[in-house]
């Protein structure tokens, strides 16, 4: 068993293949919405400089962006929620206007906003490795792998052949432990690629407004790995 923070390197044997990968493969990771997949992408940023939660104010209906656990952004010119009433994590390209709605509510121009696959945690079941899958993947250490605003957002890296969609599930497997399960659905030969997914940490216990640690476990190409995140239940 390896105890590591993250993997942040490509497998060298796939280095050239990664540069040549086309966007024909898909990754999908949701229970009960198997028609909503992702295109495989080489660089999931494409000019983005922030990851936010896109929300709607329940009183006035104003769309706003939650930048982290405390700071909200008011998107100038974006009155209507771009994703309807659905709350999602998103890659954003933003520019600060220099104005603020209040102390922790700066105004921003939004040049781009792309949703990240966002889902709830899955329930624990018997024989989870068999039911949910145990195919290997890597979690990349960079700014897009982050725990904030009640979400765990991960940049994942694995092999895609384009034969079928992949499925990812996050399950609470202990008092302070969650496990990421990956089912490649037989799509285990091809090229290395990256994508992003966000999980709402709805099954973790309430932290009472304080930061607490939880451990994420997953099966990598080198065996089991784990990393610790700080988490605070959002208001």
Commentary on this structure:
- The structure is a single chain.
- The protein has helices spanning 15-20, 128-132, and strands at residues 26-27, 38-39, 50-56, 63-66, 72-75, 88-102, 105-115, 117-120, 138-139, 146-148, 151-160, 167-174, 177-183, 191-200, 212-220, 223-231.
- It has 235 residues and is mainly beta.
- The protein has a 5-stranded mixed barrel. Strands 8, 9, 10, 11 and 14 form a 5-stranded mixed beta sheet that branches.
- The longest helix is centred in the first third of the chain and has 6 residues, at 15-20.
Summarize the topology:
Layout: H1 15-20, E1 26-27, E2 38-39, E3 50-56, E4 63-66, E5 72-75, E6 88-102, E7 105-115, E8 117-120, H2 128-132, E9 138-139, E10 146-148, E11 151-160, E12 167-174, E13 177-183, E14 191-200, E15 212-220, E16 223-231
Parallel strand pairs: 5-7, 8-14, 13-15
Antiparallel strand pairs: 1-2, 3-4, 3-6, 4-5, 6-7, 9-11, 10-11, 11-14, 12-13, 15-16
Quick recap:
With 235 residues, the chain is mainly beta. The chain has helices at 15-20, 128-132, and strands at 26-27, 38-39, 50-56, 63-66, 72-75, 88-102, 105-115, 117-120, 138-139, 146-148, 151-160, 167-174, 177-183, 191-200, 212-220, 223-231. The longest helix is centred in the first third of the chain and has 6 residues, at 15-20.
Instruction: Report the uncertain regions.
Output: 1-42
Q: Please count the helical segments.
A: 2
**Approximate shape:** globular
Mean pLDDT across every amino acid position: 82
Q: Please give the alpha-carbon distance between the first and last residues.
A: 36 Å
C-alpha Rg (nearest Å): 18 Å
